[in-house]
Design brief:
heterodimer; A: mainly alpha; MetI-like fold; about 75% helix; globular; B: about 300 residues; mainly alpha; 2 domains; about 0% strand
Chain lengths: ~300, ~300
Amino acid sequence: MTVTVTSPPRRAPWLRTLRYDAGLRALAGLGLVLYAVFIVLPLFMSLHSSLTNANPLYASSKFVGLANYRQMLHDDALHSAVIYTLELAFGVTIVANVIGFAFAVLLNRTNLSYRVLRTLAFLPQVISGVITGFVWETILTENGVLNTLLLHLHVIGQPIDWLGDPHLAQLSVGIVTAWVLSGFTTVVYLAALQSIPQELYDAASIDGAGPSRRLRSITVPMTAPATTICVTICMITVMKLYDIITVLTGGGPAFATQSAAQYIVQVAFTSDEFGYASAIAIALLAISAALALSVTHVLRRREVNL
Amino acid sequence: MTASTLTSSPTETGSASRRPPRAGENSPLRDRLSPLRLILAILATLLFVSPIYITIVNAFKPESDIENSPASPPLHPTLSNLTAAVNRPDQLIQLGLRNSLIVVFCSVILIIPLASAFSFYISRRRTRTRAVILAVLAAGLMIPPQVVLLPTIRILTVLGLDHTYPGLILSNVGGGYFSFAVFVYVGFMRAVPSEIVEAARIDGAGLLRAWWSIVMPLVRPATATVTIFLSLWIWNDFLNPLFILGPEQGQTITTGLYLSLGQMQIDFGQMFGIMFLAGIIPVVGYLFIQKQFVAGLTAGSVK
């Protein structure tokens, strides 16, 4: 932290400034120290231990160079977790943005009834991932609410094991995550729609543009900044997804729905391989950052071109 | 979800209701289509919130009704699910809500003065200094919790605070939440004219006094945004309390649900009762302060 006390003409005001400002400096400094201790320092400790064989069962850890990073190349469980996480990130991002955009266009009216509906649409975002996981588990489990309803309506002949079959479980996790994020995207797209000047639509109508043309030539380009925000945040959120999966499937069946974040926790706390877990965490951070930056870059260019 | 609020500023609390009516809204075609549109909107919203609807109605239904007609409204309303949830021997709901309230309250009450004072301090520094500090703070928003979790536990062990509430609260105060609060405050403090602060200094007030009596009242909307979002996020936090508190300490509402309900089967009625009670506080809170909530979330994301 830089202490910039501009050199004063006399000594007394300088001392007075120091004394008068000490209280605020102390408070601000305390905040910075805590941030350094709980974010900056841990980040460097993670980087360091990713180069060691740190393990709470060993008395001391040894520097192993890039061995942990090489180990990642041959770790099949890691590969399937990363692939599933990436599939989830892309799938959920697309679905949540399509639903959010469509929902926002549908709800973009100012009458009271629409305002009530808009309030409801954001609710999934308020509820914790743990509660979301449990609620959906009671809905999707084999004798759960969804199967009961579908059996009553004679849509299916026998219950479907939504969380027990590996592929269906992967799909279920995606649906639940998309559900949560759609609440967020709907609100952001709605705010973007409300910032579009009505004159644009009026002028386009006078020029003979129909509803689909107005959607394509005004609504989509004018909401491009919202798309950038929504896509980036959905991606980042899914890349570190932990709570929903942990409660809904626990990563099962047979690790089919294990996310990269869960795998890190498993390696760290079940296998006690702190060094290796740190290396995976650093790699996940790098992948997420690269993904977020490139997506933002592409979408920002799109904002300009549209 | 943090990044969207970063560029918020006091002027951007735009709301929908003040928009003039759309030109097309009065056309005959629109008039004929609008009931259809409303029905479609209602159906889509109801389908979307059906998991929440199912939780609420089934929390008040006897077990047989849940099994036979899970989607119907409570035709034989009962409070037995809620009493079963409250009367659990492990006091899951009471202890979880109490512990979560303590963690949220202590974390937020500490973050607000620290982050606000820090933001005030750096907003008076040169532009380049400020940019460097903000770049370092941005890392706190982007780093996944798994990356810093293990070292954080080691640091808390050194401090003698591992597996304690003060340890969890301290790591909340110094963690990514601090970055979020600083970004919100810095955005608002840019709009505070420096003349006001200088005038106070000429009158003999120290910076601490100027910050507390002049700047803090001016950035009240920032304090509201920070309080709302940090309360919600810390309340819903799962990974940090799970591993920093560990299984022996009393649980927060999220880790308590996971650790006691993940292991065993309980009947649907009690499950819905527990979920209803565990989720009701943030939902009611959101319904009350919905406007500030949405304004804070969308500010800056639509420019």
